[in-house]
Amino acid sequence: MDSVFLIESFADFAKRKNIDRPTMIRILEDVFRTMIRKRFETDENFDIIINADKGDLEIWRFREIVDDNSEDIWDHDKVSLTEARKIEPDFEIGEEVAEEVKLEDFGRRAVQMARQTLIQKIKDLEKDILFQKYKELVGEIILGEVYQVLGREILLVDAEGNELILPKFEQIPKDRFKKGENVRAIVHRVEMVNGNPKIILSRTSTVFLERLFESEVPEVYDGLITIKKVVREPGERAKVAVESYDDRIDPVGACVGMKGSRIHSIVRELENENIDVINYTENTELYISRALSPAKISSMKVEPENGRVSVYLKPDQVSLAIGKGGQNIKLASRLVDLEIDVFRELEGHEVEDVSLDEFSDEIEGWVIDELKKIGLDTARSVLNLTKEELIRRTDLEEETVQDVLSILRQEFE
């Protein structure tokens, strides 16, 4: 094992990994200085000269010549006149001796240890390079190839063979991947676990949807259209608020594209996620009205101090506002940063109607919540439906529905 082999092997690796020359020299010097300290206890009076291109290594030890009887003779940077003249016969006291130390002088065991140290430093450097590379890619879309499908996660590899992780909870529920398939996702986070970089991807992040818009809509990529906010239920529904600072550009039309050409490719990537693109506005009431699309709002009462807004809709609009499983109203609430309460307008009964919350002492809270999920928030809105309709549209048992109807009827009797 000689210096040429050590240095050339490391230099080859450094070039493959695009390690800059100063870093490469620093690592090599650190390894050799460690060897020197183990042999001579200190490396203060040593110079190391490395020519990485040729694999050359020179280690020079510098010591001051002192009298054979000097008290300083045992200092690490001193040498007796007798010892110095063995190197050069005409040396005198006070002069400096420069002595080259060969790698083989350290012994086979020390050189082997240096090799192991260098290998470890190479591994650590490779991990650090990978960590820094992906740290800079957080929030960006990358393409990975599936090489193993596990129960709790999918393992992918990038173009350089580095392992990437797509956890189950970062996958769209409808995602089904097979080995060898290419997957697009964003770099969600990068962390060091036991000294190894762990690269976590995501397809459920709102940032993933933003990046898809950037890739499919040139105006978004160029900054002509700004994405103000994104909220989504991955694989089900999303709402994207967009704004253009150029009056000549219709932000919604540009994002959707001719006959939906732009939005369709995004929808396909997200397993047919239903995406509502709306025009952002600082007019709160108009923004709320757009957020609840496709429902048409009759009127509303905004209470910003309470973080709530009450919207009133015609009976046929309530289900549209709430959406499947309450998705539309949940996303709209998150989009406008207000809790939206939906109320049904009942002609001729406005004065007489009573909120379901008024019956909380007689009807359990979870039952009231079930009724609200399908847009029933007043007594008359419940009584307008038959028992069979209520059973079909909610998860309530027949006996529970019957009890609710009895309690509400008593109120108006």
Which CATH first-tier class of one domain would you pick? Alpha Beta
CATH fold category name of one domain? N Utilization Substance Protein A, Chain:P, domain 4
Class by alpha and beta content: alpha+beta
The radius of gyration computed from the alpha-carbon positions, rounded to a whole number of angstroms, is 37 Å
Mean pLDDT: 87
How far apart lie the N and C ends?
101 Å
Pfam family, one: KH_NusA_1st
Subcellular location: Cytoplasm
Protein name: Transcription termination/antitermination protein NusA
Family: Belongs to the NusA family.
List keywords for this structure.
413 residues; N Utilization Substance Protein A, Chain:P, domain 4; GMP Synthetase, Chain A, domain 3; 15 helices; elongated
Overview of the molecule:
Among the domains are: 3-133, N Utilization Substance Protein A, Chain:P, domain 4, CATH 3.30.1480; 137-204, OB fold (Dihydrolipoamide Acetyltransferase, E2P) (Beta Barrel), CATH 2.40.50.140; 224-280, 2-Layer Sandwich (GMP Synthetase, Chain A, domain 3). The chain is 39% helix and 25% strand. The chain contains 15 helices and 15 strands. α2 (21-40) runs antiparallel to α4 (108-135), α5 (206-216) packs antiparallel against α8 (261-269) and α14 crosses α15 (398-412). The longest helix is centred in the first third of the chain and has 28 residues, at 108-135. It is elongated, with a radius of gyration of 37 Å. The chain starts with a helix and ends with a helix.
